[in-house]
């Protein structure tokens, strides 16, 4: 099937197209209406149909592939690898679901999951799905305050945690963080269920509130729990955005539309079918982890690999050794992850047999060309940049090797995924811009299946955040884009990441790209800083792979002037040891900008390494 025809059909006849796609999953009762769009921009896909994510991810595979691996959970932190077949997954999930029921958790109740990237996190998610409880996974690396905020938003009946996680060999006790969060929260859960990994034998227990999973698991051994059939539009889970641009938004996902969109994306985009192996390096706490470590691969009967640990432990070849050992067909990671490897010897990329590996997808951030070339040359595979958001739940832009693979254009995540009606429009007039012109990337509603249904408990914020930017009712991605003559879209950065130098509007991304072409540069972050004369001037913060700071700064300036013109010339270049990022690896430009303008750095709840901000402060004090 050719991409063009497939995509066009999804636009011309969305109901026919999605009715066909819906056959890829099991329905308990078939949908009565493919699309109900009586209340724009709210839409209901497959309304009246009942189904269940856990049934589709687990039960329905038992006959054909019960003994096939469903999940391989590898931890380079604990040194433990667990290989779990579909039958074993079915057993574990049933026991977990039975435990949840015994704790009075049922349909529609929220369950917060605060765990490292371990198999039980997946069991817990699927168990919630099985009984119709709404999970809200909170990334295990977040501090207690973040957890408390999410508890208060979700008001869970239960919190599931591990005793501890590990990062770089260091044990991080979770239980004290959970206790602190429950104290801080206004609406703490009545019960905390702790899965002990034996990492923190002294973990405290609060009498009457805390229960141990081990004991309950034994008590519920062999249990079977009936699947709860949910209407397609009931909530399946909540998940917060990364908080790069401000307070995170609680994305609410449905059941049927999500399952159908994932099934479609697995074969058409990721080129993975039943019996094949997918390895996503994401944490289950992120959108990629939900869609492509848990639900996507399992819904289609593939094997999913979950990895806990650094990409450099025990050595920088660890990801590729996993690809070799399990015959991974498609791998999924992030530009940030690849940049970590880029600081290591490229010889690590050549040490393992990657003959099974077909594709490496990268998402989450702009993929700069030097990094794209480095990894393409290093592993000798096709690298596919794909663009999406926590909100969309699956790719918006990608190349689709499962249909027909179009040529890669470095710097572009490619073409619209099926079902997406994308436009690039002028931010002021709202008119479509021509090929090669910059505008805001918008999705024409109704949003396709899989995308968020609303912001949890806050329809007004849903409207205001995404649909209030233009006269027409359009979903704003809040990202700048350019579409070229061939329809390839290039993402230029966020709409609040634009610099206005003496009336010239420059995307921070373009300047960052230009800086990172300098061989010494590992990563560059560019922001606009207030300037009395020009309005704003570009300021660069960069980390180096090697070389001298002053020479690198001069080199970056020269390259920007040469590639983008004198107007983009960075007014100041600061070389730092680390850049401030969110826990999901995204540059916190808004905080850099605030510090450079001597303002408060804003919501730092999702900041990864506070040391990086201190470094920036010191660099600013020292001067460029
Ligand atoms: P918040 O919405 O809370 O500010 P966030 O936007 O970083 O945080 P995510 O949903 O994790 O939260 O990230 C989606 C954003 O990441 C996109 O809107 C885009 O800015 C960026 N992004 C994702 N993939 C790509 C890509 N392939 N190329 C360029 N940018 C990307
Ligand atoms: Mg966002």
UniProtKB/TrEMBL annotation:
Acetyl-coenzyme A synthetase N-terminal domain boundaries: 3-57
Keyword match ATP-binding: yes
Domain spans labelled AMP-binding enzyme C-terminal: 510-586
Pfam families membership: ACAS_N, AMP-binding, AMP-binding_C
Domain AMP-dependent synthetase/ligase: 63-444
Record flagged with keyword Ligase: yes
GO BP, sorted A to Z: propionate catabolic process, 2-methylcitrate cycle
Alphabetical list of SUPFAM superfamilies matching this protein: Acetyl-CoA synthetase-like
Protein name: Propionate--CoA ligase
Organism: Marilutibacter maris
């Amino acid at each position: 099937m050719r991409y063009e025809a497939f995509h066009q059909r999804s636009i011309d006849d969305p109901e026919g197209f999605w009715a066909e796609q819906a056959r890829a999953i099991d329905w308990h009762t078939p949908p009565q209406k493919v699309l109900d769009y009586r209340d724009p921009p709210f839409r209901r896909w497959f309304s009246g149909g009942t189904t269940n994510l856990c049934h589709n991810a687990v039960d329905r595979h038992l006959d054909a592939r019960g003994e096939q691996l469903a999940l391989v959970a590898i931890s380079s932190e604990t040194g433990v690898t667990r290989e779990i077949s579909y039958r074993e997954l079915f057993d574990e999930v049933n026991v977990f679901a039975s435990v949840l029921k015994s704790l009075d958790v049922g349909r529609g109740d929220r369950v917060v999951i605060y765990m490292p990237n371990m198999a039980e996190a997946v069991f817990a998610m699927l168990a919630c799905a099985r009984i119709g409880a709404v999970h809200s996974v909170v990334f295990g690396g977040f501090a207690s305050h973040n957890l408390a905020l999410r508890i208060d938003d979700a008001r869970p009946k239960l919190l599931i945690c591990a005793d501890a996680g590990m990062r770089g060999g260091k044990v991080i006790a979770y239980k004290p963080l959970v206790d602190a969060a429950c104290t801080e929260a206004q609406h703490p859960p009545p019960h905390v269920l702790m899965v002990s990994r034996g990492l923190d034998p002294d973990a405290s227990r609060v009498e009457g509130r805390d229960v141990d999973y081990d004991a309950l698991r034994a008590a519920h051994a062999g249990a079977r729990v009936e699947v709860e059939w949910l209407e397609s539009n009931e909530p399946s889970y909540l998940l917060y955005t990364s908080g790069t641009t401000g307070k995170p938004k609680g994305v609410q996902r449905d059941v049927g539309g999500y399952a159908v969109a994932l099934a479609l994306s697995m074969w058409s985009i990721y080129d993975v079918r039943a019996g094949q192996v997918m390895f996503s390096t994401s944490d289950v706490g992120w959108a990629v982890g939900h869609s492509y470590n848990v639900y996507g691969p399992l819904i289609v009967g593939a094997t999913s690999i979950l990895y806990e640990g650094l990409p450099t432990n025990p050595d920088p070849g660890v990801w590729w050794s996993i690809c070799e050992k399990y015959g991974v067909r498609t791998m999924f990671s992030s530009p940030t992850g690849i940049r970590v490897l880029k600081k290591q010897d490229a010889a690590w990329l050549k040490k393992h047999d990657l003959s099974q590996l077909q594709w490496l997808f990268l998402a989450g951030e702009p993929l700069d060309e030097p990094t794209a070339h480095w990894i393409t040359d290093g592993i000798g595979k096709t690298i596919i940049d794909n663009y999406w958001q926590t909100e969309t739940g699956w790719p918006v832009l990608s190349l689709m090797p499962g249909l027909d693979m179009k040529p890669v254009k470095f710097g572009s995540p490619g073409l619209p995924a099926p079902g997406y009606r994308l436009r690039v429009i002028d931010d002021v007039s709202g008119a479509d811009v021509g090929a090669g012109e910059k505008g805001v990337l918008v999705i024409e509603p109704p949003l396709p299946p899989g995308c968020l249904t609303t912001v949890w408990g806050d329809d007004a914020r849903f409207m205001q955040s995404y649909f209030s930017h233009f006269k027409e009712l359009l979903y704003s991605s809040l990202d700048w884009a350019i579409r070229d003559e061939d329809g390839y879209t290039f993402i230029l950065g966020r709409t609040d990441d634009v610099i206005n130098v003496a009336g010239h509007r420059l995307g921070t991304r373009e300047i960052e790209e230009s800086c990172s072409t300098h061989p010494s540069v590992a990563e560059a972050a560019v922001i606009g800083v207030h300037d009395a004369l020009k309005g704003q001037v570009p300021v660069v913060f960069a980390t180096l792979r090697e070389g001298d700071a002053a020479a690198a700064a001069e080199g970056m300036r020269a390259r920007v002037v040469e590639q983008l013109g004198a107007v983009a010339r960075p007014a100041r270049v600061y070389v730092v040891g680390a850049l401030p990022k969110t826990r999901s690896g995204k540059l916190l430009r808004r905080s850099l900008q605030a510090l450079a303008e001597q303002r408060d750095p804003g919501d730092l709840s999702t900041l990864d390494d506070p040391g990086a901000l201190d470094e920036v402060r010191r660099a600013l004090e020292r001067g460029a």
